[in-house]
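User: Hi! I'm working on a homework problem where we have to compare a predicted structure to a textbook description. Could you give me the structure for the chain below?
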Amino acid sequence: MQHEMEVTDLDTLLALLPACRRCRKAKRRCDTQLPACANCSRVGADCVFLDHVSKEYLPRTYIASLVDHLKSLEARGHATGAESSTSSAEPETTASSHRPRFVLVRDAFRYLGENAPLGGSASNLLACPGQLRSNQSSSRLAIPPTWSWDAGLHQYLIDMYFATIHQVYPILDPESQLFTDPQLGRAEASPFEAFVLNGVYSIACHCLPGNNPQLVLLSDTYHREALTHADRVTAELNLEALQAVNLLAMRSLFDSQTGSLGQQVAFAHHLEMELSAREVEETSHALATLRATTYCVGNQMATALDRPSGLVEPDDAQTLALPNSLMHLCSLYKMQSRFRDGLSMEDMDVTNAYESDGAELNPLVQAAKSETAFLLRPSSETAMQLLISYHDEHMIFNIFTPHWAYKAGALLLSDPSQDASQEGYVLAVTVLDRCALKWPNSRALQDMLKASAKATVKSTSNQAR
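Assistant: Happy to help. Predicted structure tokens:
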């Protein structure tokens, strides 16, 4: 079934399990994450859950079959790895290299679609592990607790967050006393306030101009502090829990190694669906904003990995009520999602991706617009426009930026007849070099792009002879 492919690993699979229908009707939740629900089994009935991709209720025995499938894949992967250590691996055939595949990443299998930016090069990367610059964990920065509450640092990081991320994703209220009163002490802060402050600080450390990595260690420290309050913040099903999970997902856009973005998006979507079922007027606007945020972040990941997001589209009425930047961003990710689902260009309104609306867009929205145009119609022109958008001085890179930059650079190299191919190659290498400041494995993509450029030059020289 098509929707099997959205499951990446066992932890993600278990995180996607929602509350049992029968237990929810009884106003209680299952205490188990096992595919069989203990409470339903007592009355001889099978527990079911709503699959938001197929729009149908499926038995949890179906989830059990997927668990077994993933375990067999993992066992097969370990066996293959053991064999390859004693003998050289056979090269992939041309046909198999273009099929969607499960790729072993950080001791778990991740699904990469045929058109994923790393889909065509994953085998090369895995075959040459020595070429990868692993992101070695840095030594922890020992920071006195009072540093987190210093008035000067507090104001700098708060201002940075609200001048960048908040302009596109208005998850929090900037008028809250939490952000306007730097004298708010640690003893006075509730678990939610302590989580939000440290979460905002951590994200802001990644929003410095030029992808500056100077505060990365400080970001890790704030993130660890925020996680100490996460259990208490997410214990209740309310708007604060949804805000907290969205902040965690936002932070994972800058550091995929200390959090599972897929699990966080799935959790946020589950919370949003539960809250929508009992939505009240006082929270409807905030809930719509958080719903759109979850949808946009989830589709950033889904497009980069070329797989279904499994998220329900916000309807048009809700989208029109959003702030301008988030509304524009949401419409772009709707286009990307529909395109991945196989909808033809003729059946979609793609004007937002190609035509200028006359207004100056936020750099993050402009980058998403360029990514959408490149996804829908990959060409030297759209690839060049994408790389130019990354060079905006206010652009904030995330973990998916290297993938887009590599794919755009590779396309430009494949069309040497274009005058801009050399310039585009230089732009792509520069973007990957800046990305490598935070994500060292970007060097692998940069090396592959340089190797492709050398091969292109060599081929051109041979043809000239």
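For your comparison, note the following. The two ends are 53 Å apart (CA to CA). Strands lie at 48-51, 56-59, 101-105, 108-112. Good luck with the assignment!
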